[in-house]
Amino acid sequence: MGSSPPSKSNDAPAPPLPVPETIQCPRPICLQYLKGLNLNRAYFNKHMNRCYCSNCYGPSKPNVFIAANSKFTVPRGWVSFGIQLDQAFASDKGIFKNWYTTFYGTSKDKLSEIIRNRFIPFPGDDLLSGEKFILNLPDQKHVYTSPSINYASLSHICPVDRMNVNDNFYDFQVVLRCKQNPADVQKFASGKPNACELLPNDNIQWKTDQRSSVLPISLLIRATKS
Ligand SMILES: [Zn+2]
């Protein structure tokens, strides 16, 4: 007892310790948003759902993973909803071992068309719905992806959808996590050099002209309180 320093009566009271803000897991909010999108439930495999908020995926865990000898970012802050896969195709191609993991930023109105198509369509493709896949990009001959969720979710690729959930407004974004055939992938630098601090900028944008080579495996949703 005697070893503790004597208290001085003229000391100002110690300021209260900052209370760490409780991070609420965004999973229920993102699930509510997903339900509102009215996508066919048969597209999804809830056994593959994951949450990468700081509660569910702790700060000490890795920020980057490797697939097919290529780095990709962990989608920290996003909630991942598993997409039903063609298991025969997946195992035949060995996609979890041999294919890259990439991200494809999109908008909510395109999700149904893309997931139903199984692979990311090319601009101008005829879809099963009978409509064409329209993307207002100067390059209509490639599918663009990125190994970085930070790059793929830039707002010019991945628009923000503001919505009220449980009396709070959130900005929602949607990104498809994909397995991508490494054949004929071209990698190049971004014009926005600071989009991702985890991966080098000089090959953060990828494109391919190969059909049926980018397969969505989960729908990532991020809710940011606005
Ligand atoms: Zn969580």
UniProtKB/TrEMBL annotation:
Annotated protein name in UniProt: Uncharacterized protein
